[in-house]
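Here's what a typical entry looks like (Nuclease HARBI1):
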Amino acid sequence: MLLRIWAGAGYDATRQGFPFVRNMDSDVLALCLLRRQRQLLQKRLWVHPILRSRNERGEFHSLIQELRLDQDRHKEYFRLSTAEFDRLLTMVAPVIEKQDTTLRQAIGPAERLAICLRKYFCFWQLVTPTTRYPRASGWENPSVATAIWERLVGEYMPVPQESDWKEIAEGFSTKWAFPHCLGAIDGKHITIKAPADSGSLYYNYKGQFSIVLLAVVDANYLFRVVDIGAYGKSSDGGSLSACAFGRALREGTLILPDDEPLPNGEHLGPVPFVFVGDEAFPLQKHLLRPYPGRAIPVDQRVFNSHLSHARRIVENAFGIMAAQFCVYHRVMELSPCNAEKIVQATTILHNFIRWGHRNSPSTSGYADPATKNISSRMVSLHLGSPANSVKLFGLYCHR
């Protein structure tokens, strides 16, 4: 019987050079060969019929084409208008486009981009992905997110030069009454699934596993510098010290504007341009933090109020991004490396969406109420006279 099974499976134990067959239990060997024979008889499909009909009944070729006729629904579905989607597609298509073969047709770049936006940046519920889109589109590989970052970062998050820093400082002085501010800096924990064999590296103070997004934001809620991937156990100050931006800031190798007198503060002499952060960051020449403690003099409370108005811009930017991209509303079921790629893509897409509104944030749909009555808010917070504020700022910078 054993020889008949071998013959049925297409094998000859003696001629194929398997002398161990003589010593193997015949029943176990018979079961193994029967299983192999059944596997050979099962017909496997190169492409499932459901997936072959995607050009007629797939979501991209049916629902999405109808959504393009309704701007509001399209923006709700993709977080992008049709014009923004088309412009983004034009930029990333050369990178994500695949070549057709004689065996099957490749997934088009527009469909691959649509899958990425829905998979990683919007809610995805109710049905499994293979019933909507083909898995051949790189479902589990965020390659499209990588392409989005690489193609957009040079235009929508360029490395700031001295003229860019001065423009940012002018924006903070005009909109948030904080002169010489180069940006607000803060960190955000991005929750991920527990990485294998990582111990407590990614375990943060909230009791979750995360990576850290450290960002510098300008007065228009645009990300100017981002560092992604620090271990969740790291504090904001520790993440800053370990990243390239933090080292450059500490060593003085950033191309920052030269020290200048403050407005109405020429008598104080040149004052450095600074970034603003919370208590988690160390005090440096180009990095300000609030005065510590609660029982502090009135003039220090006045300064902390000024700094708080400027610093909260980065927190608002995180909130705007989280509202736009629902991937931040749940745990990322990705490895830390892939999660970094998704976070990179969301930060650059955030800038891509807001770039046209950078000089008029009230038209972007996420305006801060403080931009409307900032003068009255300054009075209501007992911020004092401009001369006193300038004096306090200058004294703090010269500590």
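The CA atoms of residues 162 and 257 lie 6 Å apart.

More examples are in the samples folder.
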